[in-house]
Sequence to fold (281 residues):
Amino acid sequence: MRLPTRLLPRKINSNKNDFGHIFILAGSRPYSGAAVLCAAGAMRSGAGLVTLGIPEGLNTALIKIKPKEVMTLPLPETTSGSLSTRAYSKIKDFSRKIDILVIGPGLSRESSAQSLARKIIRNIARPMVIDADGLNALAGRLQYLKDGMVITPHPGEMARLLEASIAKVQRERKTITVNFSRRYKVTLVLKGHNTLVGDKKGNLYVNQTGNPGMATAGSGDVLTGMIAAFLAQGLDSFNAAKLAVYVHGLAGDLAAREKTQISLIASDIIDKIPEAIKKCS
Fold:
């Protein structure tokens, strides 16, 4: 796959605002790394600006481990270290300044964080990429999905959304992807071997990059950041998701050659994004 002409070459007088501001609502006390991996994936994939909206108690720790280029917005938290529903007004105000909203990586399944996710999905009018616990918040509430959203479930999350078994999801991957995308007018990225991307028009992309070593903690968080970055740079949701899935898998293949599939971790995928993009150029 080649990079779309929209992405290359960049104009000589470009500035960071030309490549989008991504706001990532992520992280909780047990899952702070998910936020960092998502942000790093977005930055390495060309986003102009990335802000992490995180529980305020994580801010000091994350400042030490996040990419230096990533900004943070500390937000009200619960006693257990998840985002609180009290964060909504601050999130709504900040969302007026951004281009793409990501919600879910490491958010937790605590009731307050789940309620906050649903309120954001229902009421904030920004292009969104919804992953992980953002998807769990939608179980039984698929009416909250809106035209143009990108959702990135693994088979277990897809099974929860459909109230079906994982076996059924795996058995009918292509049919489910096409039908769900059409019905809810979203771009669906159904992760796994030969990740699928479907859109509201019935288009279906079957990815051929990637390897079993990528079945590791944080790999999906990196992909979510990459999708957001390509959206922020002006690609439509289907093409942004296709490109991100391909480059993510290619970066994983490059990393596996060096690290082996057994030793591959999500950070290795991030490190190989530049080389993967170069190969697509």
